[in-house]
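Submission checklist for the structure archive. All mandatory fields must be present; incomplete records are returned to the submitter.

[x] Identifier: Luciferase domain-containing protein
[x] Organism: Actinocorallia longicatena
[x] Residue count: 137
[x] Sequence attached
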Amino acid sequence: MSRGRHPSAVTYADLAIDRFRQWPLTACRADCPPGRALSLPDRQIVHLHRGDLAEVHLTRPVISRLTTTLAASGRVDILPGTAWVEVHLEADNDLFLLESLVSLAIQANDPTHPRDPIAYCPQAVPGSRRRTPLSRA
């Protein structure tokens, strides 16, 4: 995995926001501060509360289907009791993984398909910050 570092003033969260500029997402302030978010017209699907971590709203059915694959990455944690996963942003390859997961999140949160109700950010739910590393699942 590439561990290329970028200038200290630029975080991987900054690079992620830049990568999604041409996607059908809107960059905005996260509903649950601090940080930024990427949003579909009716819901935020990516939260960037820190420069080295992204939360992605995949929906519970998608997380259930992908648990084994996500575990193999070693870069993703499921947030218990939520439809969100955390992606560790510490290398350029992590941004590629994030792009793949955001693509899935866009599809999973498409308003023309059955989907989870709007899920609150784990940052805003007390006790949900306990991570479940998938590599131990």
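[x] Structure attached
Curator remark: The mean pLDDT is 82. DSSP finds three helices and seven strands in the chain.
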